[in-house]
């Protein structure tokens, strides 16, 4: 347990220090969402109709942007070797790293959502619904993205490959995240059904992600 | 001071075959190291010295043969009883010297010793709050050595350990290795330069 909490604390500390990745994701999220009203034009009804989709896309792209460094940095400086050799199962170490990444890079996105909701003409209830769906859905993005990040390390390709691998996995999350938010804003569906599926997707990825990532890292030892 | 003398440990490899990128690096390699013994792995560049260390550390899968540690902790696998000191030093430039060391102490677990004392031993006690990014190559190496002292593991796998160390640093390191062997530890070191301690030579890739 000390091992895992040490790993989480270290990763959060690095992410929050100067040059860490935590701020980059939030800044990207802000940029995308702030620019969107200018691109769509002054149609307030359209804007609030598109709002949840814009916020979700922004959050998805922002988490992709920072995820590819999840294992790459540790691989480059040799930390990953020591983590693989350690007495902590690699699956748990992967889960701890993903959790740290979500705390440092995913939570700030959710905190920023209410502010950005104003820009998209979303009322309090709608903003709350989007923030809630992001809270339930972004862990799924992080934990499935981790699989891509692990593969990117073993295949020695970063960036683009990772996006191509991970995007199909995140489509269901996007669909049900936006569907649940839309249900609150325009109806006629209930909020509960898509939101439950979103939670289920997160729970599945919490289990599958660490095992798949660890298997990929072990397979790609060199 | 803990020791591993109680059961004589023996690290041995039988008929080890290493294949990297489809090319056979070495094959049929036999080696052995017992408690209190240092093995210096020598050979030309590309002969597989680093690969051998990574095979022992479980970071490469042997294409054939077996590597085993007899007389160690039966509950743990061989890699879990090893320290691996490679070319890459596993230090985070954004974290301070003390934070880097205490992270590895907490993460690697097992029996561990006072981090501040280890830093003093390797001569870094004046720089504990300095971010590791500001350290010189030799100081980074010293910080890696502090990890070997803070967390105790019976088997040390060292890849060119004296690289970047100054003369005083090499003497200091020689002393650390002698202490480790005196405690009943095992050292396998890949090296071009003399290790500075009594060691048995294991030459690989000589038949090419």
TrEMBL record, chain A:
Single GO cellular component term: plasma membrane
Source domain of life: Bacteria
Keywords annotated in UniProt: Cell inner membrane, Cell membrane, Cytochrome c-type biogenesis, Membrane, Transmembrane, Transmembrane helix, Transport
A molecular-function term among this protein's GO annotations: heme transmembrane transporter activity
Record-linked InterPro entries: Cyt_c_biogenesis_CcmB, Cyt_c_CcmB_bac
TM stretches of this protein: 21-41, 53-71, 92-120, 126-153, 160-185, 191-217
Bilayer topology term: Multi-pass membrane protein
Coiled-coil regions listed: none
BP term (GO), one: cytochrome c biosynthetic process
Location(s), subcellular: Cell inner membrane
The family this protein is said to belong to: Belongs to the CcmB/CycW/HelB family.
Task performed by this protein: Required for the export of heme to the periplasm for the biogenesis of c-type cytochromes.
The protein's name in its UniProt record: Heme exporter protein B
């Amino acid at each position: 347990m000390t091992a895992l909490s040490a790993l989480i604390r270290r990763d959060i500390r690095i992410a929050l220090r100067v040059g860490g990745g935590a701020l980059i994701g939030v800044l990207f999220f802000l940029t995308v969402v702030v620019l969107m009203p200018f691109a769509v034009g002054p149609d307030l009804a359209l804007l609030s109709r598109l709002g949840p989709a814009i916020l979700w896309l922004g959050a998805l792209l922002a988490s992709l942007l920072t995820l590819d460094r999840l294992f790459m940095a540790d691989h480059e400086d040799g930390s990953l070797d020591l983590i693989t050799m350690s007495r902590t199962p690699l699956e748990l170490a992967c889960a701890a790293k993903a959790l740290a990444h979500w705390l440092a890079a995913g939570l700030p996105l959710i905190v920023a959502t209410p502010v950005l909701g104003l820009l998209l003409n979303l009322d309090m209830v709608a903003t709350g619904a989007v923030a809630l769906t992001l809270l339930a859905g972004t862990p799924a993005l992080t934990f499935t993205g981790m699989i891509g990040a692990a593969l990117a390390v073993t295949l020695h390709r970063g960036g683009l490959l990772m996006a191509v691998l991970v995007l199909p996995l995140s489509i269901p999350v996007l669909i049900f995240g936006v569907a649940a938010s839309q249900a609150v804003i325009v109806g006629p569906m209930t909020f509960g059904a898509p939101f439950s599926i979103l939670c289920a997707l997160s729970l599945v990825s919490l289990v599958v992600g660490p095992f798949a990532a660890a298997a990929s890292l072990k397979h790609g030892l060199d | 001071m803990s020791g591993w003398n109680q059961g004589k440990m023996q690290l041995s490899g039988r008929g080890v075959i290493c294949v990297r990128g489809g090319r056979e690096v070495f094959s049929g390699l036999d080696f052995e190291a017992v408690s209190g013994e240092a093995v210096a792995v020598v050979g030309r560049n590309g002969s597989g010295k680093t690969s051998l260390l990574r095979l022992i550390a479980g970071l490469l899968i042997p294409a054939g043969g077996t590597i085993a540690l007899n007389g160690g902790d039966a509950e743990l696998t061989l890699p879990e009883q090893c320290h691996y000191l490679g070319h890459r030093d596993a230090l985070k430039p954004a974290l301070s010297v003390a934070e880097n060391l205490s992270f590895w102490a907490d993460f690697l677990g097992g029996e561990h010793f006072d981090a501040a004392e280890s830093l003093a031993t390797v001569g870094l006690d004046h720089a504990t709050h300095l971010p590791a990014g500001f350290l010189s190559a030799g100081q980074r190496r010293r910080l890696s050595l502090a990890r070997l002292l803070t967390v105790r593991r019976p088997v040390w796998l060292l890849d060119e350990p004296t690289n970047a160390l100054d003369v005083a640093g090499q003497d200091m390191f020689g002393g650390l290795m002698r202490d480790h062997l005196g405690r009943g530890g095992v050292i396998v070191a890949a090296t071009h330069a003399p290790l500075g301690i009594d060691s048995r030579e294991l030459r690989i890739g000589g038949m090419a």
